[in-house]
Write a structure and sequence with these properties.
By secondary structure, the protein is an all-alpha fold. The protein contains seven helices and two strands. It has a two-stranded parallel sheet with strand order 1-2. Helix 1 crosses helix 3 and helix 2 crosses helix 4. The longest helix is centred in the N-terminal third of the chain and has 16 residues.
Length: 148
């Protein structure tokens, strides 16, 4: 019997970028997405995080990010809150990110309002910018009790 001694992920952080690309490819296929990578802020969080759950935890974080993002990149709002809390102080010092203390629902509501304002409250234009149908936009507006 051969024994392979593999150090924990926290001791081989140089493997994180390659593992992330592997997991992104895997979950792009599974979810039919086209995520290309991670934002620089997410890369910084992943490199600073201690990874108590090792590679399995990294895989689940990437899976969640691919599943949640509607963009080409996984960003901070797609990470689990526990990770953000552990590195929040460093992030705030480096680059303020005003949405760290919002829930996903609060962020979605805020984003809907910002896109609507940018589209001069034209719902067809806003829906197109959000990648939604107009009926889907109306459902979201109703969900958040927004009357515009």
């Amino acid at each position: 019997m051969a024994e392979i001694n593999l150090p924990p992920l926290r001791k081989r952080k140089e493997d994180i970028p390659l593992l992330c690309l592997h997991f992104i490819d895997r979950y792009n296929q599974r979810f039919g997405k086209a995520v290309r990578g991670l934002s620089n802020r997410v890369k910084k969080v992943l490199m600073e995080y201690d990874w108590p759950g090792n590679v399995r935890e990294l895989e689940k974080v990437v899976e969640r990010g691919v599943m949640l993002t509607a963009e080409n990149f996984i960003d901070l709002q797609h990470l689990p809150e526990r990770m953000l809390k552990l590195v929040q102080q460093e992030l705030v010092e480096d680059r303020p990110y005003p949405y760290l203390n919002l829930t996903l629902a609060e962020m979605e509501k805020k984003h809907l309002l910002e896109v609507l304002r940018a589209a001069d409250f034209n719902k067809q234009k806003a829906a197109r910018r959000l990648g939604l149908t107009r009926p889907a936009l109306y459902r979201k507006l109703q969900k958040y009790k927004l009357t515009v």
